[in-house]
Design brief:
- The structure holds 2 protein chains of 2 kinds.
- Chain A has 2 domains: 4-311, Metalloenzyme, LuxS/M16 peptidase-like (Cytochrome Bc1 Complex, Chain A, domain 1, 2-Layer Sandwich), CATH 3.30.830; 335-513, Metalloenzyme, LuxS/M16 peptidase-like (Cytochrome Bc1 Complex, Chain A, domain 1, 2-Layer Sandwich), CATH 3.30.830.10.
- Chain A has 17 helices and 12 strands.
- Chain A has helices spanning 17-25, 81-88, 101-130, 145-164, 169-176, 202-214, 221-237, 242-252, 274-284, 300-311, 361-371, 377-385, 417-433, 438-454, 459-472, 477-486, 490-500; strands at residues 10-11, 40-43, 49-54, 60-67, 180-186, 191-198, 290-296, 335-341, 346-352, 389-398, 403-411, 506-513.
- By secondary structure, chain B is of the alpha+beta class.
- Chain B folds into 3 domains: 11-47, no CATH class; 60-202 and 210-265, Cytochrome Bc1 Complex, Chain A, domain 1 (2-Layer Sandwich); 288-411 and 445-499, Cytochrome Bc1 Complex, Chain A, domain 1.
- In chain B, β5 (135-140) and β6 form a beta hairpin.
- In chain B, α4 (104-114) crosses α10.
- The chains are: A alpha+beta, B alpha+beta.
- The interface between A and B is large, with 100 and 100 residues.
Chain lengths: 523, 519
């Protein structure tokens, strides 16, 4: 399945297949009467939520937490800050990562003073860029002499800091104690951190995670910005569709703050200051904005006591995180993008639909399943039937503030993306006119049902599903959505197709291979 | 304190909350960091005391069942979920594909499960599997094939019936062959789209030689020339019971499952051939820098050295050495210097896997903006050199060894993992050679010394033999820069060679692409 518009997870560390699997399998995690995930929920004194699933199948505990903040909580100028922040949370604390905290703080302070001056120079450079005097702010030769001088000074401070730095100590502590799979991701809606530790080291997890939420130190802040920029080059700039996907997303969202990339605009990433990160932390990493989740081999009662001991040290934030108030406006006309890229010809169609937990989201998930898979309507109609495509896909992507329905496919050699597009619409028209037969509906529901079991195979997948549901809005959906999926009727499916999959509600990306066009229209 | 319960049977939680509230912890814990029993939170994590965790590696013998009809099966019952998971591993692979038929393994492997059976058209088979929510997949890779089935235990008998028919009487339906060929052809067309794909392919050519069997790629002509007869022959040659190893876990009784497996493999309708040994004639390229020009703003670098097999007596020493050098992620030297110190890459690593059938390749790699490719390469080479110049520190040794030992139980975290690790050991011959491999794993890690690490570093990561592959924008990568006065040509003792892109449909070099920038 193609996940064009679903690829909004930015994973901070090792490239994690798990998350890809998660993103693609979320369409199928619900069922009615299947095994419930036995979650215990507790709210600590400081407002922090704690979810626990006791499971004694393996001698480990998968622990994670969701900060209810993502790129949708940003604004122009600081796009990418939520993700940069995720990287900074591995840089240590007052006690982890340095041999001399006082000196470390002093150096960081001096670094910031130099950086303040550099930022003044960067303002001048941006002005020069707007006047067309320089072509690229990133090139060393375009930096002002004063900036370069300050940069030398800054680098001297970095060298000084290195003497007292304990490199990546946060990772070292966990690794030495048998921690595995430590990672984190940032999406539009959430930032999540997770690891698996041996069952006897739950207290280590409590120590480490409470420590970094309580008093993180953003050291090596500016080197990490460069790392993030390399991440942007790796995922977005240097991949065949990265920049086009970014463009499509920017074109799709009108008012809800999903239009900018999670990794941030290229101009913003190097401009984010440590002061802005500090402010961001104060609002969004307050305990009342965080949900801790534990899955594995522990005793719930003792764990609650331990969690209180460690996490209630963190005072409740003075201010609650603000709600995102902007709602997506109704699109009034179809939008189209014609892209020439290093890729096979294909079409990618997106319709505005509904956010997570919306009553129509279940019928839309069922609809996606009816259209996708090898026994779905698109494959039968376009790949096996009219043979205009070699591959097709469909998915409902319900995010926290708004949602979309995505479908498309790759054109068969000799066919055009427009023919694939027409084929998709033809299948949709059939669904608008005729109800899905009972057998077909049941087949799709059976798949959702079996997925209810498959998701429970071990601690980490259970944790990831809880993270995803809680981050999008409510962990309870892990147990509630299944019933709602099973209750979807053929009439519901027909209704949502008619309601959402309309011409004026869609944004279409048509991709052809770069250089294959006969018409030399120029770039 | 607020608390909520999601299920009425979680009364024990309720009791606990009442107890905690009764002790009045809520208010004092915050200010004094004290718990119910008054223990303060230590200042450093090393001061924490953990209860012991004893873990015995499961014994393969406990699950091993040699079936009367040929295969060895690993049978791992697990009643937690109403699911059964079966994987049948097959001794076959692309190395057995005749010259000129490249792609045959991919077609046969995919179409076995997707092309219907004698009694069911491909469409009917897919519909039935979908209705049962059963996942049936098949595949043939370089030196192994597999057929897997995951389904609800209530459907086990029907599923096994389908599995038997798929393996003994596949239909390889013509329209499915045509579609799969078309899909392979269109996938080929994307071969030069991603710099990552170019890098992986060229790294293989450099590390093993163009003639090595694993570097034969399907072409438009080879796929076009594959007939249904070819596919049927390939299937019949290698898919027979004594050529299988089976892993099965899930919701069943052991004895019942063993009987079902006996039935599954009984009276097989055809006899196959014994596969020839896997060729090991790899050829490593001459030291030097190899550059593929590709118009992207980030260069990808692979630094290659000849590797080892996993039965090498130095295997465990190499494991620790590589972990310290670049295998251990954020606790490794390459990651620390390239990413954390310099901010030059998002991902920076080294890998030194032991090959199963022939020596694998040592690779150190990263991706960096064009202008810092040479500089970052010099940093990695320098880390490799330092690795050979002295022993690692005690701290490094401890993190690496404790890490391997303490995360060891994760290898066996699920029943699926247990069944498949043991089946793989059976398949690759490790069980026969070293039946207590997992029992002895932690002791062997424990035995590695600083001296061992230094010695294997000198033996295996000598930077003067490196082959350095760079895929990226040549003009920027080879630019001389005042801020980083390092040039690619000075990093290696060998010459800089430009490699052409390959025609995606023929895999023949495209003349001229090694000279001018790809525009």
């Amino acid at each position: 399945m193609r996940v064009n518009m679903v690829m909004h997870l930015i994973i901070s560390k090792r490239i994690s297949k798990l998350l890809f699997v998660l993103a693609t399998s979320l369409m199928a995690v619900h069922f009615a009467s299947a095994q419930k995930v036995p979650v215990t929920e507790v709210t600590l004194d400081n407002g922090m939520k704690l979810l626990m699933v006791e499971r004694h199948d393996e001698p480990s505990v998968s622990g994670g937490w969701v900060a209810h903040v993502g790129s949708s909580n940003e604004r122009p100028g600081i796009t990418g800050i939520a993700h940069l922040f995720e990287h900074m949370m591995f840089k240590g604390t007052e006690t982890i990562g340095t041999k001399d905290y006082q000196k470390d703080q002093q150096i960081i302070l001096e670094q910031e003073q130099v950086r303040d001056e550099m930022r003044k120079e960067e303002e001048k450079m941006r002005a020069a860029y707007r006047r067309g005097e320089i072509d690229d702010l990133m090139k060393p030769e375009n930096k002002t002499p004063r900036w370069q001088e300050l940069n030398k000074k800054f680098n001297e401070l970095i060298t000084q800091q290195r003497d007292i730095l304990v490199k990546n100590e946060f990772d070292q502590v966990y690794t030495e104690q048998g921690g595995t799979g430590m990672n984190a991701f940032t999406s539009q809606d959430m930032t999540a951190y997770f690891i698996t530790v041996p069952a006897n080291k739950l207290e280590l997890w409590m120590w480490m995670e409470s420590e970094r939420i309580r008093r993180p130190v953003f050291r090596e802040f500016y080197a990490e910005r460069d790392v993030v920029f390399e991440e942007r080059r790796m995922r977005t700039d240097s991949t065949p569709l990265g920049k086009f996907t970014e463009e499509a997303e920017a074109m799709f969202w009108e008012s809800v703050p999903y239009g900018w990339p999670v990794v941030g605009w290229p101009s913003d990433i190097p401009a984010i200051s440590k002061a802005q990160a500090d402010e961001f932390y104060g609002i969004y990493y307050a305990p009342q904005n965080i949900t801790m989740i534990l899955v594995g081999d522990f005793k719930t009662n003792a764990t609650i006591a331990l969690a209180k001991k460690y996490f209630e040290r963190i005072p409740r934030g003075k201010k609650d995180a603000p709600d995102v108030r902007t709602l997506e406006v109704s699109q009034v006309a179809e939008k189209r993008m014609y892209a020439e890229a290093e890729t096979n010809p294909q079409v990618d169609i997106n319709w505005h639909t509904v956010p997570f937990g919306h009553k129509d989201s279940y019928a839309l998930q069922v609809l996606a399943q009816i259209l996708s898979t090898r026994t779905g309507r698109l494959y039968k109609g376009l790949v096996m039937g009219s043979q205009v495509a070699t591959d097709t896909y469909a998915a409902q992507d319900s995010r926290k503030w708004a949602g979309l329905f995505n479908a498309g496919g790759e054109a068969k050699d000799g066919k055009t993306p427009e023919e694939v597009e027409a084929g998709v619409y033809a299948e949709i028209e059939k669904l608008k006119k005729e109800e899905v037969p009972p057998e077909e509906l049941q087949k799709v529901k059976n798949d959702f049902a079996a997925s209810e079991y498959r998701r429970l195979s071990s601690n980490m997948p259970i944790l990831m599903h809880l993270i995803q549901n809680e981050g999008e809005g409510d962990w309870r959906e892990i147990n509630e959505a299944g019933k709602k999926i099973q209750a979807v009727t053929a009439g519901d499916v027909q209704r949502v197709v008619n309601k959402y999959l309309t011409k004026e509600n869609r944004v279409v990306g048509v991709y052809t291979r770069k250089g294959s066009s006969q018409k030399q229209e120029g770039k | 304190m607020k608390s909520r319960y999601n299920h009425s049977h979680w009364m024990s939680v309720f009791a606990a909350l009442v107890m905690i509230a009764g002790l009045g912890i809520g208010s004092c814990a915050r200010s004094q960091n004290l718990t119910a029993n008054g223990t303060a939170i230590p200042k450093r994590p090393e001061q924490l005391k953990f209860p012991p965790l004893t873990f015995e590696a499961p014994s393969p013998a406990k699950f091993r069942v040699p079936l009367k009809n040929g295969p060895v099966a690993y049978v791992v019952p697990d009643k937690e979920l109403p699911l059964v998971n079966i994987v049948i591993y097959v001794h076959t692979g692309s190395y057995l594909v005749p010259d000129g038929k490249e792609g045959l393994n991919e077609l046969a492997g995919y179409l076995l499960a997707r092309g219907g059976t004698k009694s069911k058209t491909a469409e009917a088979l897919e519909e039935r599997l979908a209705f049962l929510a059963a996942q049936l997949n098949s595949n043939i890779g370089d030196n192994q094939g597999s057929v897997s089935l995951n389904l609800l235990s209530k459907d086990l008998d029907e599923g096994l019936g389908i599995l038997r028919e798929v393996m003994t009487e596949p239909r390889f339906q013509d329209n499915k062959i045509a579609l799969r060929k078309q899909q392979l052809l269109q996938a080929m067309k994307q071969r030069n789209d991603e710099s990552e794909a170019i890098e992986a392919r060229e790294a293989g050519f450099l590390a093993q030689g163009e003639k090595f069997w694993a570097n034969r790629y399907p072409t438009a002509a080879s796929v076009e020339g594959i007939t249904r007869g070819d596919i049927e022959d390939f299937h019949k040659k290698w898919f027979y019971p004594s050529n299988f190893v089976v892993a099965v876990n899930g919701d069943f009784d052991r004895d019942t499952m063993v009987q079902k497996l006996e039935n599954l493999f009984a009276n097989w309708p055809f006899q196959g051939e014994k596969p020839s040994p896997i060729p090991t004639n790899t050829l490593f390229a001459k030291p030097g820098v190899y550059l593929v020009d590709k118009d992207v703003n980030q260069g990808r670098v692979s630094i290659l050295l000849p590797g080892i097999k996993r039965d090498n007596p130095d295997y465990f020493n190499v494991l620790i050495m590589n972990d310290i050098l670049g295998g251990g992620g954020f606790t490794s030297r390459i990651m620390n210097s390239v990413r954390s110190d310099e901010g030059l890459a998002y991902s920076a690593y080294s890998s030194f896997p032991g090959g199963v059938y022939y020596p694998s390749t040592f690779t150190a790699g990263f991706q960096s903006k064009s202008r810092t490719v040479a500089y970052a390469t010099s940093i990695v080479i320098n880390e490799m050199k330092k690795m050979t110049e002295g022993p690692p520190t005690d701290v490094e040794m401890n993190i690496s060894k404790r890490g391997y030992i303490d995360r060891f139980p994760r290898q066996f975290a699920t029943k699926t993992q247990i069944a498949n690790i043991f089946a793989q050991d059976e398949f690759t011959g490790r069980y026969a050679r070293d039946p207590e491999f997992w029992q002895k794993f932690r002791a062997r890690i424990e035995a590695v010394t600083k001296g061992d690490v230094e010695r294997v570093a000198r033996k295996f990561v000598a930077p003067d033999k490196t082959v350095i592959l760079v895929v990226g924008q040549k003009s920027d990568i080879t630019m001389t820069l005042p801020e980083h006065p390092v040039a690619l040509k000075d990093i290696s003792s060998g010459p800089v060679t430009e490699l052409p892109l390959r025609d995606p449909l023929t895999m023949k070099p495209i003349a001229g692409t090694e000279k001018s920038a790809a525009k």
